[in-house]
Fold each of these.
Amino acid sequence: MIRFVDVHKSYRVDGKDVPALQPFSLDIADGEVFGIIGHSGAGKSTLIRLINLLERPSGGSIQIDGTEMTTLGELALRSKRRRIGMIFQHFNLLSSQTVADNIAFPLRLAGERDPGRIAARVDELLRRVGLEAHAAKYPAQLSGGQKQRVGIARALANRPSILLCDEATSALDPQTTASVLELLAEINRELKLTIVLITHEMDVVRRVCDRVAVLDAGRIVEHGAVADVFLHPQHPTTRRFVNEALPEEAAGELAPYTQVPGRILRLSFRGEATWTPALGRVARDTGVDFNILAGRIDRIKELPYGQLTLAMQGDGVDQALVALRAAGIEIEELSR
Amino acid sequence: MSAPSLHTLFPNIDDWAEIGRACIDTLLMLGGSLLMTVVIGLPLGVLLYLTGKGQLRAMPKCYAALSLVVNILRSIPFIILMIVLLPLTFVLAGTTLGVRGAIPPLVIGAAPFFARLVETALREVQRGVIEASQAMGASTWQIVCHVLLPEARGGLIAGTTVTAIALVGYTAMGGAIGAGGLGDLAYRYGYLGYKSDYMLVTVVLLIVLVQLLQMVGDRVVAHYSRY
């Protein structure tokens, strides 16, 4: 487990302390994919670097599996870092080394000298990321997605328990992003390692994360399970992120619907509820009319969800709402 | 080309073997001083880089001191540096004359220059690559050996070429105060003795040498380029 207790960070600029992260406490559980989302400058790069102490906190405690990180000596810190993989937006591969040597690099740093063992581990990693055919190439000969796969293989070389992803897909096109995220999800499933990723795209969070923290101007303004945060964002910044990931009306902003008669409702379905014909049944039973204004059905990681904004009219609306809630549908009333 | 025709072209040159020996002396001075320059200048450049502002082992005072020494040595014209260093040269090489006597001042003149080129080449290495190595648990020594130097290889080789060419110029200047080599010939026969054919031959040989150095340097850089 990664535990932050009252951690804060400020930088000294021209003799003045400029806060980068306000005091926060946060636990990241073993084996989960934890997303940190924020705009540039919100402090997310700083936050993720606190985990492997590339950035030192100005105060507070950072513990990994019970070990206090901030007081480790240099040697102990280096050996701890070997068990924390990290991948980067711009890949940061050694341009003078082949793909195989890039992946072998952390093994050699950790003191592995046996060429046979290195070769075997490199082969295994190349297969995992699907780059068997590219071992002898140099990074400059690879596409962005392939470079990130090399980065992932390199990060996994020393069998880390944590993988840090610093905007790992921000330099990639949508299709490549999807395939890299899929690879990360697969690694998380099969190797059971904890992934902490930072991003400015809600879509990345929706696809792979279990939990998310929203960072705004150095402050964690909201955090929780992705489905909760995604379906019921509380903070304005979170709403903005969610809206970016959705077609604008689907987010259910009230403004466009002031002319629509009836009560404006937002229904959220999660999991099984997404596939049951509850809405039609309740409408029939209670005699209400409804009019769908916006909607979307998709998945949050593996969880299917749906969100509909609709206008409901008729005498039985209250009764209908009770029945819908009973069917496991979350309802927010946007107007009356 | 037969000897008589050479004699008509260069009437003052009656001992071509002397020119051959001067060539060898120049090459020995160049080789010896370049080797020592790299041996001293490379670590010095790495130290400049590491102690610089915002770098891995930032030490502002150490950097300022090193930087000052480097700047002082670089600002003294080489011909004066050679004369100033005569006593030190005698201690280091046992003589102030010939190839041996030339190497200490050549190295002291060129190493700070090379160190700056090394520092500049290392600064070209992407910060992210260094950060990634730190994240992998690399020590500063490992980063220098396995990341900085290999990643800056092209710049370092180009810097070595530039330094070698500067050293060719320095060896020629060294000729004026008893270092021997092509510069010595050009100075003694060509300048003091008004034998312009000596001047012409030595200058052409120096041009050829510089061209060769640049060509080899460029080839090696291209060979190691991974872009």
Note: The first strand of chain A starts at residue 2 and ends at 13.
Amino acid sequence: MHVIIPIKQVPETSKVKMDPETGTMIREGVESIINPLDLYAIETGIQLAESGGTTTVLSMGPAKAEDALREAVAMGCTNGVLLSHRAFAGSDTWATSYALSKAISRIGPYDLILCGERATDGDTGQVGPGIAAWLDIPVATYVSAILEWRGSSVVVKRLVEDGYETLEIQTPCLLTVVKEIAYPRMPTLRGKQRARKVAIPVWGPDEIGAAPESIGLKGSPTRVVKIESPRVARDGEIRAPKDPADLEKAVDGLVAYLEKLDLLARENAKARKTETDGTA
Amino acid sequence: MNASAAKPSDVRPERNKEFKGVWILGEQRSAAVQPISYELLARGRGLADRLGVPLSAVMLGKTGEAGLQELIARGADQVIVVESPALEHFLPEPYARALEHLIRKHKPEILIAGATTTGRTLMPLVAVKCRAGLTADCTHLEIETDTGNLLQVRPAIGGNIMATIKSPSHRPQMATVRPRSMKAAARDESRCGKVIRESVPAELLASRVRRLSFEPAAADSANIQEAEVVVSGGRGLKQRENFDLIYQLAALLNAGVGASRDAVDRAWISYPHQVGLSGKTVSPKLYLCAGISGSIQHLAGIKTAEHIIAINSNPDAQILKVADYGIVADLFEVLPMLIRKIEERRRKSAVIGKLGD
């Protein structure tokens, strides 16, 4: 079995500090990490390959994205491939999924492609399904469990708004996975040693046979027009009660707030549930 | 044709003249039109009026006649329906091919769908095939005056920035829209529109994915992305049993039940309830939380809530910095008191209601 896992290197958002004055992000000195949601795909891939298989992690990004690939190898992935070239710069999800699909075709036969649900910086979740569309393979998103690997197909659980679907998908296929699917392992010492030595090929548009008009900013249908930083602080009313009477007042204030939002009306209880008319 | 579609417009799109009209992708479950469809109609109506073009709702799968008329009453000038057993439930391939088929035939300039598990799966598949620009999870859409381009505003990097995106030279312009980021369109029984039944060649409806079964969520309190109010609990609840306080308060407010990552990792509550970066992003009218400190990952999931109320014993907790109303106190004192006061108020208004009858 061969599992290909496209991953992304992202800024570590938990370390991002916000400037309280301007509401902007202070990005200096922020470390780059493997997109946290990709770790679930990596773990799932490693588990599937444990009974005789290989995993290839693939990333598109700047040269330093190699670190993310080596970390995935340290966790237990077999190989890494980096897609890095200035011609890829400015790619949106359309152009990114195109380039990754071309790289996957170059990597060779595979049984399964596993992606994180989305990246924590771009937050789109579009690249996984996009790759499936380019490769013309079946896809299932929001996969929370792999129930059975049947070789020519795989049975999975998919988390949707109102429950879980059970789906059978023909292989090769692409799955995007959610946190519930696995608990990511830590890199091992042996893994780290292997990660230092493993050769990570770096490919550009020529190596993958990408059409120049379909990559980078030129190949991207979307354009970012403007970036704004919304203010984070809301300057809310914060009560810090010192005694029971104070506490009661603070809770009364909360009740008054709910009242103001019209959430305490008697008919609220169940009627609102079925209400879809937005005029209220 | 509806009168609103014929209104003159100051917008003069220069390019892609063969693409015309605004489409929304409605959603049905067991033939019932889902509320997200009406939110999309409200958005689509504004865009269509601004451009002076008709608004169409696309429905894939079976939708009853009443449902189709409801879509017209809520703003659609036409409803394009494809009915086939292959489209009963969302399956990526037949849905994507059917939608692509309709796009190639009718050439809409704009197509918006809900940022739901369906929309966020289907739209990228179609965008790739149609070489169209697609923007995910938008919270605001408007038309650029000079060009008629769709301006798509969306949060990124955990809600820390808002980006405005457009697709100047590709059609259709595609976007998914965050549920609850706009009020549903109101009904207007006097509106008229037409229903267009389309058929899609059978070979396009083949699927390599088979839906074997469906297991509904234990409680609808898990559907936090469509809830008007979300009540969440975190590590401050100390143990699983104490989550009852959150459930009680949620029941009183008819709210969805949310949780921090900590609470989910401790198995106090299941993953579908998790709010934040590795869980769900919610945009309720009110987000009320207790015992959640407000890590940057958690805040990323609640940035677009209209109102935030927080109860936390730590005065330095980050959650209090984003709260509209906060109480720095022990949640085990605040929550029972709050529950009691809401129940009292309900009883009182019930009595007053009776007196008035």
Note: The first strand of chain B starts at residue 22 and ends at 25.
